Amino acid sequence: MTRRALIVVDVQPTFCEGGELAVTGGTAVAEAIARYAAAHRDRYALVVTTQDWHVDPGRHFATPPDEPDFVDTWPPHGQAGTPNAELHPALADLAPDASVRKGQYSAGYSGFDGSTGDSRDLRSVLRDAGITDVDVVGIAESHCVLHTTLDAVREGFGARVLTDLTVPVSEELGVQARARMAEAGAELVPSDAA
């Protein structure tokens, strides 16, 4: 029997317009995810959010005089304890069953790299709830959604990416990410077909 979880990846102001590492379309995706989750909560046995929650991620942050290369180094973002690291206000009514914070002391691109407040990793959260399949949404498709999806497949979960509920850093990187996820065995479907 299929038990499905919704994983909402890094829907935080830091990645939306006006944030430190803004992705064009981030705010619209945050609002669309909120509407989808409110309308379809009954489809999911579990809803999990992930957040970049950087304390001291080392070389992940470019520090002056070094400029970020936007591949391995980035401007400071998702800094633990700041308003922009919290969940986006559009998700105020989401009430997730579990929240995973990642990247405290490293890059932490995948939700599977993080842990909950009671120190459980995402794999344990999903397995403890008997989850067999996950739907992944969030920001950015080309980075943290990509790595979370690849890890979900690697961990043996059936994985779908709801393509209209995520946005890449650039269209080129989005095309590459979708190809990698599909090649790994993830399904790419619009939310109205989920």
List the helices and strands and how they pair.
Elements: E1 4-9, H1 26-40, E2 46-52, E3 98-102, H2 122-128, E4 133-139, H3 141-154, E5 158-167, H4 171-184, E6 187-189
Parallel strand pairs: 1-2, 1-4, 2-3, 4-5, 5-6
| Proper CATH architecture | 3-Layer(aba) Sandwich
For the sheet with most strands, the description reads:
6 strands, parallel
- Which homologous superfamily in CATH is the superfamily? Isochorismatase-like
Helix-strand category: alpha/beta
Described by the principal axes of the CA atoms, the overall outline is globular
Tally of helical runs:
4
The name CATH uses for the topology is Rossmann fold
Quantity of strands, as a count: 6
**Fraction of residues in helices?**
25-40%
Q: Describe the strand arrangement of the main beta sheet, using strand numbers.
A: 3-2-1-4-5-6
How widely separated are the two ends?
17 Å
What's the CATH first level? Alpha Beta
Report the order of strands and helices. Answer: EHEEHEHEHE
Percent of residues in β-strands: 15-25%
Average pLDDT, all residues: 96
Radius of gyration: 15 Å
Describe this structure in words.
β1, α1 (26-40) and β2 form a beta-alpha-beta unit. The chain is globular and about 55 Å long. Helices cover 26% and strands 20% of the residues. It has a single domain (4-193), classed as 3-Layer(aba) Sandwich (Rossmann fold), CATH 3.40.50.850. The protein has 4 helices and 6 strands. The relative contact order is 0.20. The two termini are 17 Å apart. It is α/β, with parallel strands linked by helices and 194 residues long. The protein has a 6-stranded parallel sheet. This is nicotinamidase. Pathway: Cofactor biosynthesis; nicotinate biosynthesis; nicotinate from nicotinamide: step 1/1. Pfam families: Isochorismatase (PF00857). Keywords: Hydrolase, Metal-binding, Pyridine nucleotide biosynthesis.
